[in-house]
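Morning. Coffee machine broken again, so started the prediction first thing and wrote up yesterday's gels while waiting. Chain of 319 residues, entered below exactly as on the submission form.
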Amino acid sequence: MTAPAFARGQAWPSLPLEEWQDTYATLHLWMQIAGKIRLVQTPWVNHGWHVTLYTTATGLTTSFIPYETRAFQINFDFIDHRLVIQSTDGRGAAFALEPQSVSTFYRRLFNELAALDFHVKIYGRPNEIPDCIPFDEDETHRAYDPEYANRFWRILIQAERIFTEFRARFIGKNSPIHFFWGGPDLAVTRFSGRRAPLHPGGIPNLPDWVTREAYSQEVSSCGFWPGGDPIAYPVFYSYAYPAPAGFSEAKVAPSEAFYSDELGEFLLPYDVVRKSPDPDATLLEFLQTTYVAAADLGKWDRQSLERQGDPRIIFSGAE
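Came back before lunch.
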């Protein structure tokens, strides 16, 4: 059990990519398998919101997945390091999250589902990964370091906590805070209420129509990404689609934030937040200033889209 780490002041643990990149690559593929199960069993929701995972008090979950008159969910437990399946008929199954190939994980998960009478078929290749290996053939990716899997989850918890505060300030159309297993990244998105121009697509191993539907409306989106090519460290990001004129030159904060021409996003290294005297304020400053840049340059109707005041004051009895 690693929960005492929170009490030791490690709510924002270090996550150097080079220390866990093999575990990261394997875990990414395991999460894609679980996410694809949710995808094929769930009615299509705008912007792909039906495929995502969600943070929990112990890890990540698919949440409720319908299956005929029953339902089930798949949970990644990064405290006890188990993959847990729960069914609405009271049955369940679990197996250890431990070093094992993607193909082994794939077979174990589908065997356990079949034993519970859930017979699901998915598209058996990863998405958003170039030169990918089919899940049932992948013996290459097999690493699992429980310490770094736990650190990754703890960062998601902190990110979601701040994203929740940020999300509450916006009363226009707002996405859930959810984990996209394609990226993989934890994200929250705000919408202006206007249609967007056709997205060019071009994401590896992802049909362009999926991307175009996801970006069919103007957005300002932010999130946390553990890193990867071309950014070899974890970052918080913020972007606009379509990016208004002057967005890349906008003045944002804190000073360590920068615009990546290669990714088309503002980035804030995770370590800047982690090492800040006030991580919450530092991250909120990044989220707010990058959103304001997108909204002001894009001429969003901020007066009608943003909350004025905090309703918690009323319910607390202060007024």
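Confidence is low (pLDDT under 50) at residues 1-9. Going to sketch it on the whiteboard this afternoon.
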